[in-house]
Amino acid sequence: MLEVLRKLWFRDVKEETLFINDVAVRIRAGFLLAIPIFMSFTLYDAIFVSNWVVDGNTAVDSGDIDWDNHIIYHVDATRRVFDYTFQTYVLIYALLEMLSGMFVWSSRLSPIILISSFLARKQKPVWKPLVPKRFAWGLGSSFIIVCLIFFNPEVFAHWVNTVWGSNLLPTTENYMSPYIPLVLVWICLGFMWMETVLGFCVGCKIHSLLVLVGVFKEECEACNNIDWDEIARKNKVRLAEQEAQKKSE
């Protein structure tokens, strides 16, 4: 437990090139998977469910019919008012969680990183470089920021209008299409599912492509991820076999 508290999911916190345990990363992604699932239900309710609440007990036959011979009723209906305070808090936490894993000092502020590192302590670690993960989490952070703007359009509009000194964005209506955060939430859900279940990091693959075209530079992961203990064990076995062969001759 003390080792977990000291290193968390890092191979060595003093390394110049940081490596983290991908087993703990996948466990953490499994915990955080609950957030896009919750947000997908929230956005479905906001976009596809009727904004009107109808009281069926007040329905009164008007005596008229429409063009399709359907009876027209008079009812008492109220328009739903959406309060996204809780969703905002959840997204803020998710944003802080994404950012916290990028550095050693900030990782200690995340309870999920601590729990994930503890759960992965008895499994064989799979060391992966931190830099591609930082890019992936930065991509996820941008998705979260877009969703925060959708849930709080007036706050962002006031901020932008104050900076620009003009009414660039309206403060009485949502200027963002609801399908933008809906698509991003489903993309995020898919990415996190692949990370958790398949161990496939889409953000890391995008980062590797950017390295390939020269946008980023990084060291060779395969060279830095060599299992020297396993190599030493195989060499020891090979030398023992050679020694036994010499004696038999």
From TrEMBL:
Superkingdom in the source lineage: Bacteria
Keywords of this entry: Membrane, Transmembrane, Transmembrane helix
Entry's transmembrane regions: 31-54, 90-114, 135-159, 179-202
Keyword Transmembrane found: yes
Statement: the UniProt record of this protein carries the keyword Nucleotide-binding: no
Family matches, as InterPro entries: DUF4395 (IPR025508)
Domain DUF4395 per the UniProt entry, residue ranges: 87-210
Signal peptide: none
Protein name: DUF4395 domain-containing protein
Organism listed in the record: Thiosulfativibrio zosterae
